[in-house]
Structure formats: structure tokens, C-alpha cells
């Protein structure tokens, strides 16, 4: 479904941004419906940078990206919006997905208005949108009353579940999970990991699961890719 072919990426550095420090090179991967690719590697090896390239937030220096067999490396405009709906992101900082001045309901409806609910209808209907939140909240085991709160009035676990709701609203097919549970305590982490597994089966989602925790990666993943500090990547078996 989402495929990366021979990606390389570096960052411009130096006083005049005249030199490029390579981060990774020749990285290829394929995310498949209903399966999880785990991604591990030492701090600073480029896992989050790879996630940003896959999300089309920053361009690769070399290589190409493909979604459902179509090249998307240089997509822009409406076609890129379509891709943004299909490939969503969850990080270890769920508060960054929400404006602190808005209630959760406002933020979620705003996301629906901007990205749509995955259906072809282009119009946004407030009542339909509100109705579509209810089953999702129930699935996330969240009380509807939480929708009237602001981000700072929620626990880390509640906020992460609401960020997951937000990610699921446009009916994505791929979720990129960058340390998505690492800031949570062990019991909340376990609940969210189980929730992610259930969602994957129900919706046939493809996951890229980035984590430092090898035990969690092994439990979540069908295959595991390891990035090295020299910027190469290969499939590995975690023991
Ligand atoms: N915008 C940027 N400009 C310049 N260098 C950057 C930028 N973002 C990240 N880097 C550098 O690129 C390298 C890879 O960073 P990245 O965040 O992708 O690593 P990571 O594997 O996700 O690390 P961690 O596991 O600690 O989160 C690091 O050396 C980092 O300092």
C-alpha cells in the first residue's frame, strides 16, 4: 500500500546551510494492509525523519514514494490532500495535535471539516459530523463529556485516545506511530496497544510502529526493520 523505494535524506547544516549532513540512505520499505512494520534504531539514527518523509511533510533527497501503486513523491494540491487523509500520524506528544484554546469537540470537528470523514461528499454537516464522533468515542472507551474539556484538562492516556480518534476520522489506511505510547504508564500503554491491535484487525490498517522498546515492537510487529547510526536499514529478527 505505502511503499518507499531507495529513500535518502540529509539536512542542510552549517552557518550558511551550505553542507548537507546525511541522515539515512537507500531505505526501502512496504507497509501492507493489516500488518505492522516495526522500526527500531539508536537515538538520532533518523527514525522520525523517515516518518516525516513517508508522511510527505519533508521531501526525500533521493528515492520515491508510492501509494496503491501510484507514485506520490511529488504530489501537490488536492491529490496531496487525498494522501494526507489516507496516511495519518500519531506521536508521543498528543497535545501538539490540539489547539490549547479549543475544546476537544471543536478540535475534532475542525479536523473533520478540514480532512473530511473519508466519504466522497464534499460538504461538511455539523450534525452529521457530531453524530459520527459518538461511535468512535465509544470504541476508544472515552466518555462523551470529555469533549467539552480543553487539552490541559485531560490525562495523557485520554489525550492520546483523542489524538487517535482524530487520526481515524478521515478513514486512513496507514498509521505512522512514532513512539506513540512511550510517554504513558505501563497499564495505559498496554490498553492503547491492545486498542491499536483491535483497530488494525477491524479496519485492515497498515502500521509503521516506531519505538525504542524492543519488547513492545516485537509484540506489535509482523516484521521489524532496524536503522543503524550510519543511516542504513534492514529487516531484522528481534530476540
Ligand atoms: N530539522 C532538522 N535540521 C537539521 N538536523 C535535524 C533536523 N531534524 C533532525 N535532525 C537531525 O537528524 C538526525 C536524525 O534525527 P531523528 O529525529 O530523525 O532521529 P530519531 O532516530 O527519530 O531519534 P530519537 O530516537 O532520539 O527520536 C539527528 O542527528 C538530528 O539531530
What can you see in these coordinates?
This protein is of the alpha/beta class and 239 residues long. The chain has one domain (2-102, 169-236): Rossmann fold. It contains seven helices and ten strands. It has helices at 47-54, 77-86, 104-115, 126-139, 156-168, 186-203, 214-220; strands at residues 2-13, 19-31, 36-40, 62-67, 70-71, 87-91, 174-178, 206-210, 223-227, 233-236. The strands form two sheets. Strands 6-7-8-3-9-10 form a six-stranded mixed β-sheet, with helices on both faces. Strands 2-1-4-5 form a four-stranded antiparallel β-sheet, covered by helices on one side. The radius of gyration is 18 Å and the shape is globular. The model has no long low-confidence stretch (mean pLDDT 90). The site of adenosine-5'-triphosphate has 10 residues, from helix 1. This is Peptide/nickel transport system ATP-binding protein. Pfam families: ABC_tran. One of its GO terms (molecular function) is ATP binding. Keywords: ATP-binding, Nucleotide-binding, Transport. One of its GO terms (biological process) is transmembrane transport.
